[in-house]
């Protein structure tokens, strides 16, 4: 049984989150954006930021990609 997904970045907008997800997926990792903004209809609800989640098994590889600076100024969580 796989452990729960883990957050590898928290950013300020869905667009930033999707860019990071694209970077991770281009490296062959699974990733998803999680936010509480009613499916993008209410972006002002993103008060807690937008989280990028990966499976626990991909966490180390994802963090390595993000620390290379390729994804920009994401706040690692």
Describe the SSE topology.
Blueprint lengths: L5 E6 L2 H13 L5 E3 L15 E5 L4 H9 L10
Antiparallel strand pairs: 1-3, 2-3
Question: What can you tell me about this protein's structure?
Answer:
The protein has helices at residues 14-26, 59-67; strands at residues 6-11, 32-34, 50-54. The chain has a single domain, classed as Alpha-Beta Plaits (2-Layer Sandwich). It has 77 residues and is of the alpha+beta class. The longest helix is centred in the first third of the chain and has 13 residues, at 14-26. Strands 1-3-2 form a three-stranded antiparallel β-sheet, covered by helices on one side. The radius of gyration is 12 Å and the shape is globular. The chain has two helices and three strands, in the order E-H-E-E-H.
